[in-house]
Amino acid sequence: MSYELLIFWSLAAVTIASAAVAIYAKNIVNAVFGLFVSLLCVAGVYALLQADFLAITQVVIYVGGILVLLLFGILLTNRTLEDLVLSHRRPYVVGILVGAGILCVLLSVLTTTVWNVHPLGSLEGTTGPLGVLLLQKYVIAFEFSSLTLLAALLGASYLVRRKERD
What we know:
Elements: H1 3-24, H2 28-48, H3 52-75, H4 81-84, H5 90-112, H6 127-135, H7 139-165
């Protein structure tokens, strides 16, 4: 067994275990910590697949931004766990049925697909070429997305200031 395969299976096991902690934890801080570990392990899988840009993006955006926002949003509200639970029995039945259906579809696709394995190309990083593409070939789309984000930021700051005045 190669070390890449060992690292992959280790990351997969930790990802599944920490996702289970995130789902079944009664304490919200423990659930967020489980989600944190799960997202970090997914970034590790991206790094193992030589997708360094995706790994860094996963850590910066999901772990660094959204997870902290989620934690502060939950901790700063005065909701209890009972307020967050909608029903106790019905979601489990529906979830198990949907999960079993998805598992059947995935297993049928995995067993009927002919997998053509191609050799790996060069093992260079993806961040440099991606940056060159964004700032040369796709500069219009890149600038449009940055202007859209700027407009959203200005709109959010306007709404906050308007609420403070009222």
